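Q: Protein A?
A:
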Amino acid sequence: MSTKCPKCGGDAEKISANRFECPYCGENFTMQDQMNNAGMGYGNYQAASYNNNPPMPPYAQPAAAIPNAPQYQQQPAQVSQEDCSGWLKALSFLIPLVGLILYFVKKNEQPVGAKSCLNWAIAGFVVQIVFGLI
């Protein structure tokens, strides 16, 4: 993208790190001058649209940036030490794949119940192998 002259709108040439000169009207300016005068000429509009960020609407700001916003802290998940129900144990024993799935689903919230389902699934798998061989 070329830089436009704020006076005539022509393509300006870069003469140093942030200085520009218009070959058509001889205007010397910096990119900062161009941004300060945004909206007054054709070239200013392009430069300002890329360099100026519009303010964020309130709903998009983080809660810390909004005054008087309630601050919520995430509570750690409650870990239950309860065992799983009898019908889940029976289901895990009869269909070991279900017991394995229950273990991975419940291992974070109910570690004791998940371990019980896994144990019954392993027992059911062993029994199915033994009866399959006899």
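Q: Protein B?
A:
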Amino acid sequence: MAKKAVSLGSILSKMKVDVPLTTPQSTVTPTAPAVEEKKVLDKGVVMLNLGEIKTNPRQPRKVFDENSISELAKSISHCGVIQPLVVCLQKGEYILVAGERRLRACTLLGLEKVPVILIDVEEKKLGELALIENIQRENLNPIDEAEAIKEIMESEDISQEELAQRLGKSRPALTNTLRLLALPQKVREMISSGQLSSGHGRALLSLQKVDKILALAKECVEKGWSVRELEKRCGELAPTPKKTKKALSPELSDFEEDMQRVFATDVSLSGNLKKGKIVIKYSSDGELRRIYDIIQELKSGVE
């Protein structure tokens, strides 16, 4: 069963990030730009000069559709900014936490001030909050999401399991997203641009040779193959097994499926309950390191 989506508000609550119930003037340091107390629109919402807001350096989203920004600008010109931007104060500067599309649209319109909510958040959490917002709005392409997940795991030294819980995702879903980073750069660019889906990318990971992956990815884009069609083509190019695998007992068959889910790759098991062999396949050094990390996490859970 899919995990229930986690809201940005609940994440902020767990992180003990306080959204002010009054004007955030009292939380601003003397070196910070002043927020006009007269411009309080609602509890916690104030007007801030647009030029004082800096974009989030850890924004996971790399590509913004200009047509979409233009459409949003037209909407704002007629209806105003309905949902305030979320900012935090870092080293005397206002850093955007959520709402970069709105910020870009307001900049396009030439607005001087925008409504904001000021929150208190650690600098290292900026990337995580931006990732959560984009995931909830389904704004990220799969590669941007994978790179952001990897960056957060490395910078905060947390496991896939812990981050999956924070994001409201299942562990296998997070692992499958990270697997896309093992694809060649050209294929990752095809996924980022929307020419291929994440499903296409996972299908290509079944091939071991980079030249075959690139050739099939190009053909897939040119001919508009579905994921199922690409999976079929990949199966035709995959190495033919040397011998037919003997049927496993129900217990071992279930165990094999569990291992495939945990490692998010092809895992084969042969033998019986007393003696046998387990083979975990990988197609790149990045995927090998990922499998090694999972084994280390499983070991630490037993110790």
